[in-house]
Specification:
The complex is a heterodimer of chains A (317) and B (324). With 317 residues, chain A is an alpha/beta fold. Chain A has eleven helices and seven strands. Chain A has helices at residues 3-28, 43-51, 67-72, 76-83, 117-131, 149-160, 180-183, 208-223, 252-259, 263-273, 279-302, and strands at residues 58-60, 137-142, 165-171, 174-175, 178-179, 200-204, 229-234. In chain A, the strands form two sheets. Chain A has a five-stranded parallel sheet with strand order 1-2-3-7-6, with helices on both faces. In chain A, strands 4-5 form a two-stranded antiparallel ribbon. By secondary structure, chain B is α/β, with parallel strands linked by helices. Chain B has twelve helices and 14 strands. Chain B has helices at residues 6-20, 44-48, 60-72, 91-98, 101-104, 133-137, 150-162, 212-225, 243-253, 268-279, 302-308, 312-323; strands at residues 3-5, 24-28, 53-55, 76-80, 114-119, 143-145, 167-172, 179-181, 196-199, 204-208, 230-234, 237-239, 256-263, 289-293. Chain B has a seven-stranded mixed sheet with strand order 3-2-4-5-7-6-12, with helices on both faces. The chains are: A alpha/beta (317), B alpha/beta (324). The structure holds thiamine diphosphate and magnesium ion (MG).
Chain lengths: 317, 324
């Protein structure tokens, strides 16, 4: 893996984790509404996968945390304004936490119903194919969401039409209180790729390099006309389903054990061994993340709420 | 002027718009190789190629939602459902995605999508015979179009394809074979949101939707021979909805009957009734009357179907009651 890419991914992971921590404080302080689903523990795979995209590719992210937006390079002040449902963000209080959108970077937005992403991703793939472009679509979703019918319809639709879509499943072991093994008949969700004659691959989602490699290969296949792929990244949701989740459905031992697989120290050790990351760089990255977040929070706090009557705008083009 | 069928008018609209704009594509089940189960689109694949006209698997959620995704990214898809009833199959994609994507994302994107929906009772029973327009009239963000004549079928479809919003285009199965004069020329458009006064009169306002229009016209003809001049209004689109046209007519006539092929409760007639209560109550000298399906699914037997679907006779009878 290219050293600069490896370091860039590291910076995004740290920025995401620190932002998530700050957002949790803002939620507890009542400055950001509920409904935020933290992505702590999954940032490594999210940042690694998005790093494999080109600037003009399309992205449908999932509901799990802030890292998708950070990794794609959406300005933090805009993200924070959306989270706080204020002006100055990307959706003017219409979509809040769930619908950060950024057409300039191919960020198509988010479906509030889980699994709504798959048909939309297929349609973006269809556009690319009809227009003869060489872009791709990256579509994130959870293990629980893989049981929506839309996944199966869309996987088949993309496969028969050879659409350039990469399906990336973040298998974090849980869908709210439902463990994956009780919701999902197959052990590996990637096995479902067989039913749609597309490549399916399982990777360790807490290993940046594995994710980057698998997603890059899937993207390359899509870009060259070979159609869709399914990548399953095994990971774990280290925090609750939402901020304030009593998290009573899983044992503390299980969660403790998973903290020992926190992708951040794992990646830091790896980058340290490869002499990419030094203590000095680490401190610089942390300081830079803090400064960026402080600036964005300050910007957000000064922004006004949308005018009430603007609720009537933005419906029809 | 030349006379063509409603079905031919639909095909002509698609053909002209596909020729005019390379971003228009057409797909659905059996539309390409077979020309659609109602044979509206035969020959289009040969004309425009398999990239732009193609058959899909039986996956209504995937392909309707893909229409939204393709519309977000620069195409103008025309998606054919085999029956309007399947809008419910793709309910999430229609109501929550097509209708709300733009709004939920603060206007960042537009969704120029057309979903063609063959509607109407035709001996096909509860799940293939509905006119479900009013369900979707309730949903924000959608445009609802329901042409009753060949000329409107063409002009409204062309406008729908050029519109930058999601449009549900309801084509009534029993109207496909009806013929009418249709202007030639690729620039013939009928704007969305403009009602047509099909017949002028001052005795009573008769609002009729889709296949109810020819029945209403026949009933009005009969009433004219009895000395009652009925004003027949065809809204042509239910969103946008030409409310002023109805209110103006009621101010003149003081009486109104609404004929529609949907369930009576919360149908289009209910919305018109509420609107008149709010805006024109003082002009009404008789209560509003609705001629609609009596809140049961559409039965398959011709005998039963005939009993529940509004007819020329039931529309005539409703008008008579108000005129007496
Ligand atoms: C269609 C639909 N059903 C249910 C929900 C409510 N919901 C939001 S997140 C969630 C769990 C999703 O689990 P998974 O796909 O594994 O993703 P994770 O939350 O674990 O990241 C549920 C049930 C929803 N938003 N949409
Ligand atoms: Mg999960």
């Amino acid at each position: 893996m290219d050293k600069q890419i490896a370091l860039d991914i590291y910076k995004k992971i740290i920025l995401s984790r620190r932002l998530e921590e700050r957002v949790a404080e803002l939620i507890k302080a009542g400055q950001v509404g509920g409904f935020m689903h933290p992505g702590v523990g999954q940032e490594a795979l999210q940042c690694a996968a998005i790093a494999a995209l080109r600037k003009d590719d399309y992205l449908l992210y999932a509901h799990r945390g802030v890292a998708y937006w950070v990794a794609r390079g959406i300005p933090l002040d805009k993200v924070l304004c959306d989270l706080a449902c204020k002006e100055g963000g990307t959706n003017h209080g219409k979509g809040g936490v769930m619908r950060v959108v950024y057409p300039e970077l191919g960020v198509l937005g988010e479906s509030g119903t889980l699994g709504g992403c798959f048909p939309i991703a297929s349609g973006a793939g269809l556009s690319i194919k009809v227009k003869g472009e060489d872009r791709v679509v990256l579509c994130f979703f959870g293990d629980g969401t893989s049981n929506r019918g839309t996944f199966h319809e869309s996987a088949n639709f993309c496969a028969v039409r050879k659409l350039p879509v990469v399906f990336l499943c973040e298998n974090n072991g849980w869908a709210v209180s439902m463990p994956t093994e009780r919701s999902t008949a197959v052990k590996d969700i990637a096995d479902r790729a067989k039913g749609y004659a597309m490549p399916g691959e399982v990777v360790d989602g807490n290993d940046v390099e594995q994710v980057y490699k698998a997603v890059s290969e899937a993207i390359a296949r899509a870009r060259h006309g070979a159609g869709p792929s399914l990548v399953e990244a095994k990971t774990y949701r280290l925090w609750g389903h939402w901020i304030g989740d009593p998290d009573s459905y899983r044992s503390r031992e299980e969660v403790e054990k998973q903290w020992r697989r926190d992708p951040i120290p794992i990646y830091e050790k790896k980058l340290g061994d490869e002499k990419i990351l030094t203590e000095a760089i680490k401190q610089e990255v942390e300081a830079d993340a803090r400064a960026q977040i402080d600036r964005a929070v300050e910007f957000m706090q000064k922004q006004p709420f949308p005018k009430p009557e603007s609720a009537l705008e933005d419906l029809y083009a | 002027m030349r006379t063509i069928s409603y079905a031919q008018a639909i095909k002509e609209a698609i053909e002209e718009e596909m020729r005019r704009d390379p971003t228009v594509i057409l797909y659905g089940e059996d539309v390409a190789n077979f020309g659609g189960i109602f044979r509206i689109t035969s020959g289009l694949k040969e004309q425009f190629g398999e990239q732009r006209v193609f058959d899909t698997p039986i996956s209504e959620n995937a392909f309707v939602g893909a229409g939204v995704g393709a519309a977000l990214t620069g195409l103008r898809p025309i998606v054919e459902l085999q029956f309007a009833d399947f809008l419910f199959t793709a309910g999430d994609e229609i109501v929550l995605k097509a209708g709300m994507w733009r709004y939920g994302h603060g206007g960042a994107y537009q969704v120029p999508l057309v979903v063609r929906c063959p509607s109407g009772a035709a001996g096909v029973g509860p799940e293939h015979g509905q006119c479900p327009e009013s369900f979707f009239m309730h949903a924000p963000g959608l445009r609802i179009v329901c042409p009753a004549t060949a000329a409107d079928a063409k002009g409204l479809l062309k406008s729908a394809i050029r519109d930058n919003n999601p449009v549900l285009y309801f084509e009534h199965k029993l109207l496909y074979a009806t013929k009418g004069e249709v202007p030639e020329g690729a620039d013939y458009l009928v704007p969305l949101g403009k009602a047509s006064v099909r017949r002028q009169g001052d005795a009573l306002t008769l609002v009729a939707i889709s296949a109810m229009v020819p029945k209403a016209m026949a009933a009005a003809e009969r009433l004219a021979s009895e000395g009652h001049h009925i004003e027949v209004i065809d809204p042509r689109s239910l969103n946008p909805f030409d409310r002023p046209a109805i209110i103006e007519s009621v101010k003149k006539t003081g009486k109104i009957v609404v004929a529609e092929e949907s369930y009576k409760t919360l149908g289009v007639g209910a919305e018109i009734g509420a609107m008149l209560m709010e805006q024109a109550l003082e002009y009404l000298d008789r209560p509003l009357k609705r001629v609609a399906i009596p809140d049961v699914p559409i039965p398959t037997s011709p005998v039963l179907e005939k009993f529940v679907i509004p007819s020329e006779e039931s529309i005539y009878a409703a008008c008579r009651e108000l005129l007496n």
